[in-house]
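Hey team,

Filing this mostly as a record. A colleague (T.K.) asked me to run one chain through the structure pipeline before their review meeting, and I want the input and output archived in the tracker in case anyone asks later how it was produced. No errors, nothing strange. Just documentation.

Input sequence:
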Amino acid sequence: MKDEQFDVIQRWWGDLNNARELRKKGSPFTTADSALLRRSKSSDEVIFNCPAYHNLCERVAFDERPGDKRLAIVAAVLSHVRHDDLKKTIPFSLKALSVKSDAVNLRFKRLAQISNPDELQLALIRTVKLVGETANVRHLARSIWYWGDAKTKMDWAYDFY
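Output structure:
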């Protein structure tokens, strides 16, 4: 995925997150769109039930390939982020919490071992909630997209430890 497409994802998230205010200005989203994404338990549910996901596909000019569910996971996880903060990547936020809890260290280790897309979706949603629903949206989207790449997990490990 190109950098410009991550910019589009970030703008999509902003539109989705501000649906109530933007509705008056002709936004295609309602608060129900965000709720549908938040309630989805799997990438398949996102693909089959969430119009906001298909809006994202159109915006980034992404043609879903059978078996490639990364963008659906991006949409589902980002629907749980309330605040975009460039300084708060998930690993840095977890690092701040890990000082207080060994459970956070264990959670991070388990997260790094996940390869199943639906497990990743649920684990990242829990993690976003744990860090106060604040994250660097662009960094999170890029991380999900490249999760299968060892470099992404290595970058997270360096940021966490």
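Quick notes for T.K.: The CA atoms of residues 19 and 29 lie 6 Å apart. The mean pLDDT is 88.
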